Amino acid sequence: MKLSRTALLLTLTCLTIALAALSLIVGKVWLGFDFWFASPASPQHTIFLELRLPRALLGIIVGAALGLSGAALQGYLRNPLADPGVVGISAMAALGAVASIYFDYAGDAPWALPMAAVVGAGIGVALLFAFAGVTASTVTFILSGIILSALATAGTALLLSLSPSPWTASEIIHWLMGALTDRSFDELHFAAPLILGGAVVVLACRHSLDALTLGESGARSLGIDLNRTQWQIAIGVGLAVGASVAVTGVIGFVGLIVPHLIRPFVGSQPSALLIPSALGGAVLVLAGDIGVRLLPGGSELNLGVAMSFIGAPFFLALLMTLRRKLT
Prior knowledge:
Layout: H1 5-25, H2 43-77, H3 89-102, H4 105-108, H5 112-132, H6 138-161, H7 166-177, H8 185-203, H9 206-212, H10 216-221, H11 226-248, H12 254-266, H13 270-294, H14 303-326
Helix pairs in contact: 1-2, 1-13, 2-8, 2-11, 2-12, 2-13, 3-5, 3-6, 3-7, 3-11, 5-6, 5-11, 8-11, 9-13, 12-13
């Protein structure tokens, strides 16, 4: 069932706003209606301004970055299994962030961690394209992603095993599990410009992605510079995913799930999928973050763990569907 672009964008925007408002309210401490009439010096105002508001805003921009990146990779590679987490880009970004923690660059310069994550993600995208190639089959692409993810995981495990202090090891584990917990406006200020810049670069490739649905030869006949497009995707996805991982750790499967949920409503044209996938990613991350806060128990489940529980069965179902189509 296809919806008009305006109706879909309006629906997703309203869902994002509603979930963001709900994210400001729910948690171990619920902010009721009386909160709006409480003193500005009350603990509820501190919770709202220093914990809930930056957490909700980060959920929106990180979800949008992951959803947009997944749609861009699926469109560029013409591969429904492409996703920053599945193919190892998020793992490479995490490796960059972990390396900055291990070598204590993050402690000396606050901008070192997000920059290291962005560089790691960019290197990951470049290596993925180098391993698989733009015309790779699904099997070749997934195997390339597995290789990249294994390399990043091995590097991260090495740094973890050699960590000089329990604090360093704890920080590394924290980035690997992924969460929006205890984030502040500092993380928002770091991530927002990089994610916005990455999104602009990716959106600038939308017409090239449409042309690539005709194949490489067809795209070249329309005047598309495939080498330039490849580097634009690498830079855009690297910026968006790297900045997201830098402030939240690895939150996987968002970029895989969202485009598949949006595609039945807008069709398979890549350019039509980009912005709705960004909004859909914001909706999914906000919903997941609200869900982990509502789970019973004294400690909060990490969002990255929860998304893995959702994404792994979805990935399996997608693989089974593709297998039936090939047989």
